[in-house]
Amino acid sequence: MDIQSWTWVTVGVTFAAYLWIGYRSRVSSTEGFYVAGHGVPAIANGAATAADWMSAASFISMAGLISFQGYDGSVYLMGWTGGYVLLALLLAPFLRKFGQYTVPDFVAARFDSKAARVVAAVAALFVSLTYVAGQMGGVGVAFSRFLQVPFEVGVMIGMAIVAFFAVLGGMKGITYTQVAQYCVLIVAYTIPAVAIAMLLFGNPFPQIAIGDALPMLDALQQDLGLDPYSSPFANNDMLNVVCITLTLMVGTAGLPHVIVRFYTVKSVRDARWSAFWALLFISLLYLTAPAIAIFAKTAILQQYVALGTDGFLAQAWVQSWAATGLIDTAAIAASAGDTTAFLDAINRDIIVLATPEIAGLGPFIVALVAAGGLAAALSTASGLLLVISSSLAHDIYGEIINPEANDAERLRMGRWMILVAVLVAGVLGIYPLGFVAEVVAFAFGLAAASFFPTIVLGIFWKRANRQGAITGMAAGLAFTFVMIVLMRAHVVAPGVFGEAPILESFLGIKAQGIGVVGMLLNFALTVGVSLATPPPPAHVQRLVEQIRSPR
Fold this sequence. Notes:
With 551 residues, the chain is an all-alpha fold.
């Protein structure tokens, strides 16, 4: 069978499994819908957290960005993995001890304020909608190439699949579907890496084969007039490398769809064990991504040197991806030996999905990678959609607009909100703000500027009060959102803003790292306003002490 036939079979089997699991995990209570009844085993929650965490950005786009950015692309590895450790050690056990359903639940109880709940719910919506746009974009990339359907149709198919198991099963359906999706995505990511390492270097361990590949790639890039691949700060200066890494780290620790996973386990002890299992499962992919990035870049440049521009364009894999619009063949033809222009004509989001074809692996491996990319995108999208649903249906409708609503009404509203969120996510996926990993990085900036300071101060500083939390969250979120829009305005609305962004940077910091400034602003305002206003009531201070107590 050819690649397309294998892909239809592989994607069809995995999608059928997701739908079956979602149907079997359907729920009839709000507790089951939002936190899976607090009954998920630690190892299953670890796998589900890893799948939730390893989105389309990790599976599809991260290795592509590392491939083209070299040393500077390590910000994604350091930021995302370091941030998960920060979340697991600093926040997750305390939030699980608090219980409840959502991050705004914690903010409302800790700061004794409905207004704080609303601000937190709005922040969750901003973060989740930005993040889910990247996932839907990843679904479109995979479908458009491997199933030969238009990008927009691929996004709509993904929307329909996610809506089915998320609406029926809520967090329970999403959790057990994510366990299956993790198995698919990690197998799909590891097998090609091992095969390519064996093919090119005779070594079945991709992480070790990097030692042979990196000197080869450094020399190849120098021969083509580029900086060595391992040269630091060739694509980003030191300030932005540091700021982007910090933004991704603290943004990770503030991501609502990851935090809420720790509400689904039975106890604080299980929350700690799920963090361990998740970190183990995540490391399997993150230790492999640099190898795929280096192998792919090496193979592309070797083909470019050996075949020339015309020969490179004539290859079957290039023609297949060009048909999706993700390789600009006209720009490559016009590059006239300019290696930078040649590389700029290749979309970063195709690298992982195209690597098996570039290396000449069999059609089944190519199809497996496509299924893995879709599993990664759908698993994270489902978790994000539940956060959007809970923010609208539970935190705003159930707690603010209609607090007298019964369990059935809240559950029905939650399901309707998932459908609304799916539609919005589809539109954002079809009209994205940038490469998949770039869009996701913006979501981390928003989370860093809004949730992280509020949760950290809420747990570890009894003096933090509602006035400080509301001011800090609102200012940090607003500042970061405005800065990102101003720095990406030419992508958001070219007819209005023209081809150049309004701002190139803020104090030298670019859009992907601006969340650090928003975070510092949030910390400063929360502390300053809290000290200038009365302390929280005694029962709130007792709550903080109880959350921090080990038993």
